[in-house]
Amino acid sequence: MIDIFIFSQQYQVPEGLTILKAFEWAGFKLTHGVGCRGGFCGACGTVFRHQRDYRLHYALACQTVVEPGMILTQIPFFPAQHPSYDLNALKADGLTLLGIYPETLSCFGCNTCTKSCPQDIDVLGYISAALRGDLADLADISFDCIMCGLCVARCPAEIVPPNISLLGRRLYGRYLAPTAGHLHKRVQEIEAGTFQEAISELKTLTIGELKARYSQREIEA
Ligand code: SF4
Ligand code: SF4
Ligand code: FES
C-alpha cells in the first residue's frame, strides 16, 4: 500500500493502480472526468505534485500509475470558445483560422501548453503553424490531440489550442489533403451495391464460420 493525497485528503491505495483506479479505490464515484479508460477520450486530465517538488505535473488519470506521496486533483471543466462555422463555406487558409479564433494572435510563445500536454504534442509548434497559416503542418503536429483541455487550463493568453487545431484539421481534411483514390473507388462501389449480396450472405453465417472466413481472408500486400 502507498500513501497518496486526493483533493488534499490522505488515502492508502495499492501500489500499481492507475490514478483513475486509485480515485475509485479511495471511494470516489467518478461521474465526470472519466470516459474511455483507454487514453483516447481526453476526459480524465489530472494535475499533480510530488511532495517537496514545486513543479506541477499533468497526466491522463487512466494512463498514469500512482506513486507514493502524489498530491492529486482532477481539472474542472473550462468553458471554451465554440464559435459556429459552416465548413463548406470556409476558405482553407490561415486567415480563416485567425478570423474565427483571433485570440490565437495573443500567443506569446511561453510554451506552457507544450509542457502540460500528456500526449507530448508540440502545442506551441501547432499554434505557430496556425499563425503561419500552414494548415498541413498544423494538422500533422496536432494529429494526436485528444482534447483533454490541460493546455487550455494552463495557457496564460486564454487560448484554446485544441479547438483551433480541430478547425485546422477540418480545413485540411476537407480542402487540402490529397484524395485517397482507392478509398474513393471503394465508397463508389459500396454505394452502387457491389457488395450487397456478399454482406447478406455474411449475415447468415455462424460465429464459427465467420471466424474461419476471417482467418482465411486475403491480406493486401
Ligand atoms: S494539445 Fe492540449 S487538449 Fe490536446 S492532448 Fe495536448 S494538452 Fe490535451
Ligand atoms: S500556453 Fe498559450 S501563450 Fe503560451 S505558447 Fe501555448 S498557446 Fe501560446
Ligand atoms: S478516461 Fe478517456 S482518456 Fe482517460
Summarize the structure in words.
- By secondary structure, the protein is α+β, with helices and mostly antiparallel strands.
- It folds into three domains: 2-74, Roll (Ubiquitin-like (UB roll)); 87-176, Alpha-helical ferredoxin (Fumarate Reductase Iron-sulfur Protein, Chain B, domain 2), CATH 1.10.1060.10; 181-215, no CATH class.
- It has helices spanning 19-25, 94-100, 112-116, 123-132, 135-141, 150-154, 161-176, 181-191, 196-202, 207-215, and strands spanning 2-6, 9-13, 45-50, 57-60, 70-74.
- It has a five-stranded mixed beta sheet, with helices on one face.
- Strand 1 (2-6) and strand 2 (9-13) form a beta hairpin.
- Helix 4 runs antiparallel to helix 5 (135-141).
- Residues 42, 116-117, 119, 121, 123, 145-151, 161-162 line the site of one iron/sulfur cluster.
Q: Identify the CATH homologous superfamily of the largest domain.
A: Alpha-helical ferredoxin
Low-confidence stretches: none
Helix-strand pattern: EEHEEEHHHHHHHHH
Spatial order of the strands forming the largest sheet:
2-1-5-3-4
Q: Taking Cα atoms only, what radius of gyration do you get, to the nearest Å? A: 23 Å
Overall tally of structural domains? 3
Shape: flat
| Top-tier CATH class of the largest domain | Mainly Alpha
